[in-house]
Amino acid sequence: MTSSTSSSRGIYLRVLVAIALGMGASLGLVRLFTFVGGASAETILPEVTEARAALPRIVAEEKDVVLAFGSSMTDAAFGARQFDREMAAQGVEVKSFNFGFGGLNPYFQDYLARRVREAFDEADRRLSLAIVEFTPLQNTKTRYRRALPLVDSYVAMLASDAEIGELVLREPTVGIQTANVRYLRNGISAEMLTWFFGSEVLFPAEQPNSGLPRDEEAERTLEELGPELDRRFDEDYPDYVESAWSWEWQGAGTIPEERSPETLALFEQYYAALRNDRRMADDRLWRIHSADVENLDFEEELLAAFVRIVKTFQAFSDRVAIVVMPRNHAWIGRTPEGEARMRAALHRIREETGATVYDFEDTPRITPEMFADTTHLARYSGDVAYTSLLVEAFAPLFSR
Amino acid sequence: MIFNTPIFFLFFVVFLTLYGLVVLSRRPRILLIVVSSLVFYGAWNYRFIPLLVGSAAADYFIAQAIGATADRRARKAWVTLSIAINLGVLALFKYADFALQSVADLVSAFGVEPDLPTLAWVLPVGISFYTFQSLSYTIDVYRGTLEPRRGLMEFVAAVSFFPQLVAGPILRARQILPQMHAIPVPTWGDAKHGFVLVTAGVFKKTLADLLAAPAAKAFDSAETVSVLETWTGVVAFAGQIYGDFAGYTDMAIGIALLLGFRIPANFHLPYFAVSPVDFWRRWHISLSSWLRDYLYISLGGNRTGSRTRNVLITMLLGGLWHGAAWTFVAWGAFHGLLITASHGLSRIGALSAFHGGRSRGIALLKWAATFYLVLVGWVLFRATSLDGAGAVLARMHGLGALAEPGGQAVTVLVLTVVSLLVMQLMDLFVIKKGAWLEGKAWLLWPFLIFFQGLCLLFGEPSDDFIYFQF
């Protein structure tokens, strides 16, 4: 080796060491920032993390297991304990769980469905019934675009190591980026941080305003009743505090019989105040703006992901049903094009999965007074009626 | 492959390890540069690799042919062939659909609906950059300012050299070929400067990506916006295009420097320009000097009587180089008119005090007027149609704008202006104090780590560079 070759090697080695140390230190800063800020999968998707952690216990259940899998609309509307009770009254013993999570479109839900399947497969267990919610507003192009800043983080949090490995081989740029987010950044991508801290400034005029006057009395009622209802919950369910077993998706507290008449009356007042015209009109505009809820211009990637979700459940479930949740007809309309697209999407889903679609969109049993806003059902009224509808629809499946 | 992504980081670390520690002799290193550059390019679309290699090889052999003959007609025929091949490829991929659509629009204006085909071909990334770079070689050989060089591999390595392949700077053959022949080794000082430039580039690119949202609000929003938000959007785009392109350039120069190669600067504080002519001396210097040397001078340059025409043709084609759309043509024409007007005004004796004035007030006035005109130009550049550009220009001046800005409008404006200023000040710092910083190790490394950490924390690192599409 000549001295010039040796010195050339020396300089490049020095450059490589500087790159490694510099990048290591910079990533250390990122980890420090996210650690101090408390950003992690546990804080960003707490319910999902909790549900995944609970899967070993779920698959160990003695009774047949039922999962209601979907969006925040399922989260709000499916009363697991009520479902189990009413099913038992019909002679069907099951243990159900609410796997409804806000903020996950089908692209992300697809990963979660695979994690659920893995847990059942590992335990050599089958799911008795999967109730999979098709949420039209979660499948639109608008919704898809809005979720793009979250893709790297959510996939990094929800994908398995093997899936990330496959992604690296299939799409190296995306795969290496995802692996970087998962293994070096604790699941937190730069896009997610930017979106989290900067959306107020970067997308400042995104909250559409109906221009209706603020209902001062309703707002006062909400301010007064909110803390009061929280206090009563803590009183009624002291065991919930510090519990990792989330009451919401287990369904505790969602059965009217477990609450006092006074508390139920307060809830009624609370939801009535929530449904004031200004809030509902603003909420409708927000759903149009953020999810194209009336025109439903569907994103192919999301519809394909939904089909994959159903197929994933079909692979380890005895029964798979697709449900379309009740629509708040007083506030959410649909354009003729939107209606045609909805019918076409449901037809495609039926064709590609062979699953039955239970369409509750127009059920007369759910009225606009049973909603908390333009899309979510209210607790102790809407959820009760909807859960009963599910029992009526699915109990007969178990006797066949 | 985008510089500020994990995959490029891995690519570069692997390349540098092989280049610096394993492959030590000259010819294998050149081969490594070629192979790695093609892998880098192929990451976008491997099907265009033959186009890149083919056009470079054609220019290499044409230059050999030019060098081999003293016959002026033969030399001219060879260089014409080179121009035809390079511009033909460019025309086919980049301008064919634009031309067909323009013909269709023209004919339909007379009430006839023509049924013209469209190619709808994917535009090869960086085609405008590498064809110009390759073309400069044959023209230089034709003009006798450069001897044809032996070694096809060396030439392909120079044209495809990955740091500058897809978005420049447009290197002249005489700048890169001797380096490719010598295979330089960086000093530790070069490396430190390279790290500073890469960090400055990543930082500018991060800010540019953050400015995309307010720019899009002014240009792409289906709803109309206020005067304030329109100005914010236009200033944001000025920052976005600068941060994006100058950021890419800084990274390219810095990465090349880490390998030992020197690439000349492509920007010099363009928003500090005090006239349109001054702006073009500071903005995309490698393109403006290419157009000057190979187009403007070929047209006759400053010869009396044809200067205005030559400026206008050069700027018009410079605009068209950026993209196949009338908005780019209008942008080029606008800057051509500005430069022509500047030349005209400079000849008016009554304005000599203004032109030659050195007072701060006059300088400020000249800067403000230039910046305003540059912003107007950016509206033409960014808008997706001439109608759209007209609407944004009207809103900037109060016509058709919303009376009340949306929430956070003032905050966004302040952040936008601060971002633009920070980018320029960072450049000023690197120019004026870069050497000083590089001499203080205790300050240099924390400085670089802090800014790299900041860029890793925020931004949209998967966003393409705007100039890739040109």
Could you please describe the fold and organization of this structure?
Chain A has 400 residues and is an alpha/beta fold. Among the domains of chain A are: 47-139 and 281-399, Rossmann fold (3-Layer(aba) Sandwich); 216-274, no CATH class. Helix content of chain A is 61%, strand content 8%. Chain A is built from 18 helices and 5 strands. Chain A has a 5-stranded parallel sheet with strand order 2-1-3-4-5, sandwiched between helices. In chain A, α17 links the parallel β4 and β5 (356-359). The model of chain A has no long low-confidence stretch (mean pLDDT 89). The model of chain B has no long low-confidence stretch (mean pLDDT 89). Helix content of chain B is 73%, strand content 0%. Chain B has 2 domains: 6-183, no CATH class; 189-469, no CATH class. With 470 residues, chain B is mostly helical. Chain B is built from 18 helices and no strands. Classes of the chains: A alpha/beta (400), B mainly alpha (470). Chains A and B meet through α1, α10 and α11 of A and α1, α8, α17 and α18 of B.
Question: Short description, anyone?
Answer:
Chain A is of the alpha/beta class and 400 residues long. Chain A contains 18 helices and 5 strands.
Task: Summarize the helices and strands and which ones pair or pack.
The complex is a heterodimer of chains A (400) and B (470).
Chain A lengths: L2 H34 L4 H4 L1 H14 L4 E7 L1 H6 L2 H10 L4 E7 L5 H17 L4 E7 L7 H7 L3 H8 L2 H10 L1 H13 L5 H13 L13 H21 L10 H4 L10 H14 L2 H15 L8 H17 E8 L11 H18 L2 E4 L22 H18 L1
Parallel strand pairs in A: 1-2, 1-3, 3-4, 4-5
Chain B lengths: L5 H17 L3 H20 L3 H20 L3 H37 L18 H17 L8 H9 L12 H10 L5 H33 L6 H33 L16 H7 L2 H15 L7 H16 L3 H21 L5 H5 L3 H23 L3 H11 L12 H30 L2 H17 L13
